[in-house]
Design brief:
3 helices, 83% helix, mainly alpha, rod-shaped
Length: 104
């Protein structure tokens, strides 16, 4: 899946506007050209809105990811590492969890 090229969109809109001007009001295809232009503009506008929403979602995810990894998981694993000795049965699981957490 590819993104929509803004420059290609603008060029097509310009071409449709020029065609509408050339056709004048007498041609039946003027209405079709206008409908295509309006539909494409609406679709492109919706696409831009969705991209902005996606960018916000990605930013929110990255902020939450960093918070969870550093502020929550990192601190909790350090606390557990101080509490659990090497001889305890939970230590191998803790060591594996630390490797997983810091490998991400």
């Amino acid at each position: 899946m590819q993104g929509i090229s803004k420059s290609r969109h603008v060029h097509l809109m310009d071409a449709l506007l020029q065609l509408e001007t050339l056709l004048g009001k007498e041609c039946e295809c003027l209405q079709q050209a206008t409908e295509y232009r309006v539909d494409l503009e609406n679709m492109h506008s919706n696409y831009e809105r969705l991209l902005e929403e996606l960018a916000r979602q990605i930013t929110n995810y990255e902020v939450m990811y960093s918070h969870v990894k550093i502020q929550f998981l990192g601190k909790k694993l350090k606390e557990l590492k101080k509490e659990i000795s090497v001889e305890m049965p939970g230590f191998p699981m803790l060591a594996q969890n630390i490797r997983i957490a810091y490998g991400t």
